[in-house]
Structure formats: C-alpha cells, structure tokens
Amino acid sequence: MKRLNLILLSMIISVSVSRSENNDKILLVKINDWDRTIFYQLMTTNEYKILQENLKLENSLKTKAFKLAEKVWKEKDDHQNIAYPRSVMKIRSTRTVKAYENRKDAENRLFKLQDKIQEQLEEEEDERKHKQRYLKGKARIKANKEYARQEARELMMKEARDIFMSQIELLKKSSEE
After folding, report:
1. Rounded Cα gap, residues 51 and 30, in angstroms
2. Could you report how far apart the first and last alpha carbons of the chain are, in Å?
3. Tens of pLDDT, residue by residue, the chain (177 residues)
4. Which positions ≥6 away from 93 have C-beta within 8 Å?
5. Pairing state of beta strands 93-100 and 26-32?
6. Residue 143, Cβ neighbours under 10 Å: how many?
7. CB 96 within 8 A of CB 27
C-alpha cells in the first residue's frame, strides 16, 4: 500500500513549471513527506521559498497536531486500546537536487528519477511475489498471514496519518485567520 502511494505521488507530480518574468531558475526538489515517501518536483525559486515557509509552519504546529490527533484516535471505538502511532510521522523536509536554466533538461531529469523509483518499487513487488510463489504448505500460510498483518498495519498507519494531516490542516487554517 505504501509503495502504491509512492507510485501515485511520483506520477501525479505536476511538471508544469511556469517561468517567471525575471527568468527564475527551475529547481529539481526532493521532498520527504510525512509518511516517509520521497518524491521529486520541479519548481521555481519563488515556489520553493513558499514551500519552505509552509514547511516551517507545519513543523511548528506538529506537536499540537499530534495531541489533537491522539484525542481523535482515542475517541474511535476501534482504537481505544491502541496507542496513537507517533512513529508513522517524519518531519517533512526538502532539498534542492539541482538548479536548471533549461526547463527541458529539468523535466528529463525528473522523468528519469520517477522511472528509477517506479522500477525499484516494481522490483520489490516482483521479489515478494517470486518468494511467495515457491513457498509450500505451512510456509506459504505463514507468509500470507505475515503479508495480511503488514497490510493491516499499513492501513492503521494510513488512518493515523490521515487524522494527523487533517489536524495539521485545521491548525494551519486557524493560524492564518
């Protein structure tokens, strides 16, 4: 599930970068998201500054969002005996990979990076399927149970991230007012 999210994120990324009147450089930016996914995006220097400001605001609201998310988590009937999984969140960060003068070069590099990520994810999935194909009897049952347990854990983590993200958005809106 996490791998699928990464594929979707890397494919959804907008490549349309508008050049400003003062010929801003186009930046290839690596973004580490809350759910530990990594994706790349093209943006101008002004867009990058806005993103940095947004990340500073989000990181300053993180502790409040965790407290609110824990309250929401405990209110749900399914999670009364389960502690809120704080470890699912990582601080969002960005890093400029390279600055380009030419938009076409930046897009080519972005597509290469996206293809590389996609290939890695496909290899991991193929390897998992290959391992499972040659298992027999109890070993296959055990592997299926482990896979189901991992899927259930990923769903729970996704729900925790969604709650956290909704709380971050609420806090951002209230801080803007």
Report:
1. 12
2. 36
3. 555 444 444 444 443 444 433 457 899 999 988 878 888 999 999 999 999 999 999 888 888 988 998 898 888 877 777 888 877 777 888 999 999 998 899 999 999 999 998 999 899 888 878 777 777 788 778 888 888 898 888 888 888 888 998 999 999 888 877
4. 31, 32, 55
5. antiparallel
6. 14
7. yes
- Cα–Cα nearest to 15, from 152, 90, 113: 113
Q: What pLDDT was estimated at residue 176? A: 76
Residue 144 burial (CB count, 10 A): 12
Mode of pairing for the β-strands spanning 38-44 and 26-32: antiparallel
Residue with tokens 């824990």: 70
Name the DSSP letter for residue 138: H
- Distance between CA atoms of 162 and 166, rounded to whole angstroms? 6
Contact 31, 92 (CB under 8 A): yes
Domain extents in the chain: 2-71+89-176
Planar angle of CA 94, 100, 105, nearest 5 degrees: 110
Reading the block at residue 146, the tokens are 């482990």
Q: What is the pLDDT of residue 113?
A: 92
Q: From CA 134, how far away is CA 159, in angstroms rounded?
A: 33
